[in-house]
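hiii so um. not sure if this is the right channel but i have a protein structure encoded as tokens and i wanna go backwards to a sequence. like what aa goes where. can anyone help
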């Protein structure tokens, strides 16, 4: 029984890792760090208890890509964008600044 528990626990560890997929990561390390910072402040609207970097939900992936797109375009700020808050609601913001 203990072996089964250890095996299940070992299998769950990779699932607990960040959900950011390799094709989402920006080449510029500074911009990627910025994207991670912003993403940690946005709650997945499906999971509600996870930030979008930790969530495997499809909408979280879309939001991570949107964050990176806006950062590359230079339109991201330190606060969640008013348009994002308006569209997704304040419940989607982990850090209400």
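sure thing!! here u go:
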């Amino acid at each position: 029984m203990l072996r089964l528990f250890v095996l299940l626990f070992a299998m769950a560890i990779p699932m607990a890792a960040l959900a950011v997929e390799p094709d989402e990561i920006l080449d510029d390390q500074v911009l990627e760090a910025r994207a991670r910072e912003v993403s940690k402040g946005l709650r997945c609207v499906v999971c509600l208890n996870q930030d979008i970097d930790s969530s495997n939900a499809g909408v979280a992936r879309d939001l991570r890509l949107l964050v990176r797109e806006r950062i590359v375009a230079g339109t991201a700020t330190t606060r969640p964008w008013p348009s994002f808050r308006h569209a997704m609601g304040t419940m989607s913001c982990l850090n209400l600044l």
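oh and The chain has one domain: 2-92.
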